[in-house]
Amino acid sequence: MLLWVVLASMALWACGDRDGIGETGAGVIEVAPTQIGFAQVELGDSATEFLTIRNNSDERLQIFELELEPAGGGSAAGLSLGSVPGLPFALEAQEEQVIEVTYSPQAGEAARGRVRILSSDPRYSEEAPLYVDITTLGNSPEILVDPPLVRFARAGTGAFEERQTRLINVGTAPLIIYEAPEYGGGEDFSIALPERSYPLELLPYDSEAIEANPESYELVIDVIYEPTGQGQDTGEISVVTNDVRDPAPGRDDRGLTRIDVRADADAACIEVDSRNRNFGQVPIGSSSRDQVEVTNCGTQVLQIENIVVDQSGNTFELDLGSWDRSGNGAIDDPVSVAPGMSVTFGVRFIPFEEGTERAEVIIVNNDPIQPELVIDVVGRGADGECPIATALGRVRGVSGMGRPSLTAIPLQYVILDGSQSEDPDGQVVDYEWEVLQGPPGTLVQLGPTQDDPLGNDTSRREFRLLTAGTYRIGLNVIDNDGFRSCEGAEVEIRAIPDQDIHIELTWTNPSDPDEGDGEGSDVDLHLTKMGPGNWAEEPYSVYFQFPNRSQESIWSPEDPSLDIDVRDGAGPENITMRNPANCEWYAIGVHYYRQLFGTAYATVRIYIQGQLRYESVLEPLERTGEFWDVARIHWDSGQATIVDVDARYPALPEGQAPEVGNAMVETATELGLCSAQQLY
C-alpha cells in the first residue's frame, strides 16, 4: 500500500504558485543526509532520524510537495514524516527546515521508501524531483549454529565420542523450528535430542534470560560418533525453520539449515581426485601419463611416506619428479602436506603388447583411517600412434601469435587454441581442456570464445583471469582411432597486476554445492580513506555502492575503483589504485553481505606494484552482517607499509571511522611514517 503524506495547498496550486517549479533563479535546495538508514529497531519500538532541507542560495526557495512513498519494490509501512510546515512553504536565503522521519517497524519485511521533494530549484522538475532514500532493517529470525561444523578426530571401529552443537536465535523475531532436526549421511554418526514439542519457538537471544530459562532460547543437539570402519564418516543435520535466508527446496516460506558432521579433525586425512584411473587405449611402445592430486582433508600435517605400484608386469611406473632425486622410482624422503593443501605426482602406462593391463598404486601415509590408500589403474595396449597435442594462448584484443607461456593483467580474457594439434596416422576428433592450476581460492571456468558463443569449435576455449597469480591449462586430444595424446600440452599464464595497489578478495562456502552457478553467498570488499573517511560512507569509501571514484576531486590522483563485484559465489572482488597519495592511510575491510550457504571463508591478498605483500587466508565469516577489519596501507613516495589489523565486528560499522589502532601507531612511530590527515 502506498503510504504518503502530501503536504500541499491545492488552493495555492490553483492560483498558479506551482508555476515557479524549475524556474531559473528560484533557490538552491540541499538536503542532509542525502539518504537515511535506520539501524535495527525492535518490534514495538520506534526511532526517528532528522532530515534537514536548506536553501543554499541568496534567493527564496519554494517547497511545493513533500511525499513519502515506497521504493525499490518494497513497502513504506511503518515510516512517517513529522514537523512538516503547511505547504507550500518558503525558505529564505540560507534558511533551513528540519523534518522528522520516524520508523515504527511492523512484522514482516523491512520498510523501504523515499521522500519526494518538489521545489523551485531549477535543477529539479515534476518528472525528475529530488529524492531522499530511506532504508531499514526488518525484524526477522536468524538461526545461529554453535559450532557450525561438528568435527571429530578419525578413529577406528569400536570407538565412541559425543559432542554438542546448539541452535540459538540471534535475530529480532521468534525463530520457529517446525520439526525435530534430522540426521542424514554416514552410519558413523547419530544424534540425540531433548524431549521438546514441535513446532518449537526460540526467542531472540538474551544472555541473561537464557540462564534462568534456557529452553526458551536454545536447542542443544548431541552428536554421537561410533565408527563402523566402512568410511561412513561424513553427514549432516537438517533443521527446518522460519529463517528463510536459505530456503528449503520447494518452500519459499521455510528455511533449511544444514550442519556438517565430519570425522577428519585433529588428524591427517588423505583424499585423491579419483581412486580409479583409466588410461584408455595407448599405442604399443608409447607412454601415456596421468596426474594424481593428493589433498590433506584433515587438520594435522599429512606425511606421504611412500608410493608403490603393485602389478604383475612393468607396464606402469611412477613419475615422482623432485621427490625421487635418486631416480630409483621411490620417494627419497617423506612428503609433508599442510592441512587443506594438495600435491601431485604422475603415473605412466607403457604397454609392450596388445591387451589390457591392471595395477594398484598404493600411497603409504599417516592418515589413521587410510594408512594405505589404493588407486586402481587400467590401460589397454593397441597398434597405432598417439595424436600430438599442441596448446597456445593469447590475450583477447592484443595482437600477436599464441604462445605456450605468457603474461597478462588480472581481468583480461585469455583465448586458448589447440587447433595446431595433429595425428600422424589419422585426424584429431576431440579436444579435452583441463584446468591444472589456478590461484588459490579462484574458480577458473573455461567456456566458448567470444566469436563462437555456442562452443561448436572445441579446439578453442576462453576464460577470464579473475585474480593475480599463475594459471596452468592442460590439453589432451583424441584421434579417430580412439587414442588419446600420450603427452598432454600445457599453457601457462601469469597474471600480474599493473596498478600500484591491487587488493583481492576471494571466498569459499564449503556448504555451497556449486560455487560456479548463479546462487551463492555475497561477500564485499571495502576500502576507506582514513582521516576524513568513514566505513561505507560517501565520498571516501570504495565498495559496491560506490565502485568508481575517478571523477571525485578528493580522490585525485589516487583514482581507486572496484573493478569486479561478484554477488553469487566464490568471488573474486578487487579494488585497484593507480596513484596512491603520499602520506595517506587506507583501511581495508570485508563485509559478509548475504549468507546463503553457512560460513564463508574469506581470503584477502594485497599486491604492491605487482608483488604480493600481504595475505590472510580462509578467515571464517559465520553470519550475515559480520565485518572483518583486515589491514591498513600507508603510502609514501612509492613505498607501501601494510599493518595487519584482523578485528571483527558483528555488523558493518557504517558511518564509523576506521580505528587508528596501537599496531598502526607503533609502526608509524617506529618507521617515522608521515600522515597527511594527522592521524597520530
Instruction: Count the beta strands.
Output: 46
Using only C-alpha atoms, the radius of gyration works out to: 31 Å
Largest sheet: 5 strands, mixed
Strands of the widest sheet, in order across it, are: 2-9-8-4-6
Unreliable parts = 1-19
Report the helical percentage: under 10%
In terms of DSSP E residues, the strand content is: over 45%
Structural class given helices, strands, pairing?
Answer: mainly beta
Describe the structure.
By secondary structure, this protein is mainly β. It is globular. The longest helix has 10 residues, at 662-671. A hairpin with a 2-residue loop joins strand 43 and strand 44. It is built from three helices and 46 strands. The strands form eleven sheets. A five-stranded mixed β-sheet has the order 2-9-8-4-6, with no helix packed on it.
What distinguishing features does this structure have?
single chain; 680 residues; mainly beta; 3 helices; disordered N terminus
Strand and helix layout:
Blueprint: H1 10-14, E1 29-32, E2 35-37, E3 47-55, E4 61-70, E5 79-82, E6 89-91, E7 96-103, E8 112-119, E9 130-135, E10 143-146, E11 149-151, E12 161-169, E13 175-177, E14 182-185, E15 189-192, E16 200-202, H2 209-212, E17 218-225, E18 234-241, E19 247-248, E20 251-262, E21 270-272, E22 276-283, E23 288-296, E24 302-311, E25 316-319, E26 335-337, E27 342-349, E28 355-365, E29 372-382, E30 392-395, E31 405-408, E32 413-417, E33 428-437, E34 460-464, E35 469-479, E36 489-495, E37 501-508, E38 522-529, E39 541-542, E40 560-564, E41 573-577, E42 584-594, E43 600-608, E44 611-621, E45 627-636, E46 639-649, H3 662-671
Parallel strand pairs: 2-9, 11-20, 22-29, 31-36
Antiparallel strand pairs: 1-3, 3-7, 4-6, 4-8, 5-7, 8-9, 10-12, 12-17, 13-16, 14-18, 15-17, 18-20, 19-20, 21-23, 23-27, 24-26, 24-28, 25-27, 28-29, 30-32, 32-34, 33-35, 35-36, 37-41, 37-43, 38-39, 38-42, 40-41, 42-45, 43-44, 45-46
